[in-house]
Automatic annotation (TrEMBL):
Species this protein is from: Vibrio parahaemolyticus
Top-rank taxon: Bacteria
Annotated protein name in UniProt: Chromosome partitioning protein ParB
Length: 40
């Protein structure tokens, strides 16, 4: 979920109300970075 860091910050600051905006359709990402996890 894009923007979860903003929600986490408000929770850490003790905010009881968080304003959000929900899109009808998710906009396309500006950039997608593929991550790989190497198992040891």
């Amino acid at each position: 979920f894009d923007g979860m860091h903003r929600i986490a910050k408000q929770i850490m600051l003790g905010e009881e109300t968080i304003k959000v905006r929900r899109f009808r359709e998710n906009p396309e990402a500006d950039e997608v970075i593929e991550l790989s996890v190497e198992q040891a």
